Amino acid sequence: MSSIPEKEHLELTPFLANLFSVIYTSSYVGILYLSHLTRPQPGLARDTPFVIRARIRAVTVVTIIALVSSAVVTYFYSSRKTYLDIAEFLGLYVKLPLTLDILWCLLLTATLFLGPLVRRLWLEDGWREGNVGKMFTTWIGWRNYVAGPFTEEIVFRACMVPLHLLAGRSPGTIVFISPLFFGIAHFHHAYEFYTSNPHNPNRITVMITRSLFQFTYTTLFGWFATFLFLRTGSVWAAIITHSFCNFMGLPEFGPVEGQRWKSVVYYVLLVAGASGFYRLLWPLTESQHALVRF
After folding, report:
1. Which family does it belong to (predicted)?
2. Angstrom distance (rounded) from CA 181 to CA 192
3. By CB distance 3.0 to 4.6 Å, which of 39, 41, 114, 124 could disulfide with 273?
């Protein structure tokens, strides 16, 4: 009598992948409301150093729990059973070809910001405010350029995306759907603005406008970061790109101070950068370590 062969692992459903994504998103934001040191409230600015430190500690705890959870899910719902295999699937493993992938992704992103880079470095006489130094010497810089990108990309890329892959979703679906959780997570900034500006008569209108705008551009970036993660198999590419984008901010569309030719140069480079980004998007993200082929 022949026995029926058992499956090597359980099957993760799209529902479970979505459920884990909701839990991670809710936890990443919700933990900030558990303490009076971290929750938004009148008279407590989010840029206060002790608030930043407390929030970094809080989201770091969530990041570790999410990472362990996704590793366990990967172990039970896939054929990957070693620490190295699981780490590689979650995009955490670093080796020489992957570091080159990271550099290519950074170059690709810098191409998109060609106009703003030249504007800051040359047309406006460099970074006069010393923003580079502030990246590591202030708590605001540490949050914006190190802790924020690291924890967000670990949770919303390394922890979420592989689960949707295990659930059998297509690359295009994952690129479109998973960043929505990333965008939704930023809606709490609307409530933060509302509570921090109790005397603003237009705070509801401003809150709605700000939240929709922030949801839009965070989702757009999420699409890009998820694309990079899937194409390179490295969450570090997404982290460094995220940090660079935070440092650059949104491109300015006003005239450059000084002579008119500076504005002409800036807008030509803005268009050239966007064109170069479009042409280099696929070639520079090609990697032998891709999690999935598009």
Report:
1. Belongs to the peptidase U48 family.
2. 19
3. 114
